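Our working data are protein records whose layout never changes between entries. Instead of coordinates, the fold is spelled out as a row of discrete tokens. Here is such a record, shown just as it appears in the course material:
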Amino acid sequence: MFKVIIIGAAGRMGRRLIANVLENPDFELAGAIEYPNSPVLGQDAGALAGVQPCGVGITSDLGALLPGADAVIDFATSGVLDRARAAVAANAAVVIGTTALSADDKRELAELAASGGRIVAAGNMSVGVNLLYKLVREAAQKLGEEYDVEIVEMHHNQKKDAPSGTAVRLAEVVCEARDWNYEQDVRHGREGMVGQRPRREIGMHSLRGGDVVGDHTVIFAVNGERVELTHKASSRDTFARGALRAVKFLAAARPGLYDMQDVLGLK
């Protein structure tokens, strides 16, 4: 039985994480965290998530819950490093699913892992998306630079950032495979008389509308044929299930900073 604490319990992702934990016999909900003064503090986490009441009240006191937890799952966009430090100090594993980590944040996570922390950090926890990363890398290598690359992503109309963190990672994978540079070789949209498309370019296009959870397509095009690799997420449960797989992975892992490629054995 893996005892987990969910950060951001009232959010869309937090509620699906809670529901998936409660529905999985291998897991126990050890706590549900929200910010101080949140209107949902004290409410039953299961009821708030739309499943059966579970007897776990939502609180803002992470420190009180950590001694009884095996892992913390954190998809929040702020305060991630502080919570990771507290979890590592309590010998709890850490699963981070936010795309809001800076380069400095990632360096500090690596330092926490070097000091004995067990951490998985990935901007997308979906098993399918992480397989897509591997397939895109192989396609970029095998097809060669004569194939033009375009990336199209679509998300719901409430998403604030563009392009998505997953789309950025897909472009980074292509750049790594071709020894290109993201800052120099990625073009965000086109307008007007832009001229002939250069070969060394990755087109990046962001669409927003409705309640789309997340669609990503990488197109490799050359005269005579086109290869398209697509992943479509229809439910946030795909990210929740990936996070739970990460918890299981960390239970048997040595201290270190990992990503979902490690969790899935894709490296």
In short: DSSP finds ten helices and twelve strands in the chain. The CA atoms of residues 159 and 208 lie 8 Å apart.
